[in-house]
Amino acid sequence: MLEALRSATEPATLVALGETTGLHQNTLREHLEALVARGLARRMRAAPSGRGRPAWLYEATDPDLGVAGSEYAGLAATLAAHIHRTSRDPREDAVAAGHAWGRELARKAGPPDTAGSAAARRKVVALLDDVGFGPETDDRATTAHLTRCPLLETAREYPDVVCGVHLGIVRGALDEYGADSSRTDLQPFAEPGACRLELLTRAGKQ
Length: 206
Description:
The structure is a single chain. This protein has about 210 residues and is of the alpha+beta class. It has two domains: about 1-60, Winged helix-like DNA-binding domain superfamily/Winged helix DNA-binding domain (Arc Repressor Mutant, subunit A, Orthogonal Bundle), CATH 1.10.10; about 70-200, 2-Layer Sandwich (Muramoyl-pentapeptide Carboxypeptidase, domain 2). About 55% of the residues lie in helices and about 15% in strands. The protein has helices at about 1-5, 15-20, 25-35, 65-85, 90-110, 115-130, 150-155, 160-175, and strands at about 40-45, 55-60, 135, 145, 185-190, 195-200. The strands form two sheets. The chain has a four-stranded antiparallel sheet with strand order 3-4-6-5, with helices on one face. It has a two-stranded antiparallel sheet with strand order 1-2. The longest helix has 24 residues, at about 65-85. The N and C termini lie far apart (about 45 Å).
């Protein structure tokens, strides 16, 4: 799979990769997710063309970047294990750390194009897409299905820490954009192949 990506002259769709490798799309997705998680490939949306969601494109990363990604994942796993072992409340500490990170990411990304909570939620979903979560949601972004995890293996081992940081990122970004972050909830591995992010967990203002 990696050789197919490296030999491609441009980012490739699942359909194109299926024609090249002869593999079923479900098998392709499994291999591609593993390559992306290890920093050996990256995924991005194709340019919009007509109706429907644009296709995903995949391409190989620079080998040196792949090594750096593996080292980052190893560092993250070490830190998660340390927090899990030493903190009195690993999840709350992780959420707090993620909150500060989310505010920083939101400041760097800039404010939403329009005012209002729905616009803020959409901006946060776009931010999550940029950092590799592959969110899928509706126009109002009340619930997002996170189809990728940049630290999947570590999240399975230390969900209190890794998923806590991810929830904190969302809350921090929403706070930075002036939206209600108290109504968010992240349910790790809530459905096959995805975590569920609830951005509105109870009735109230939109």
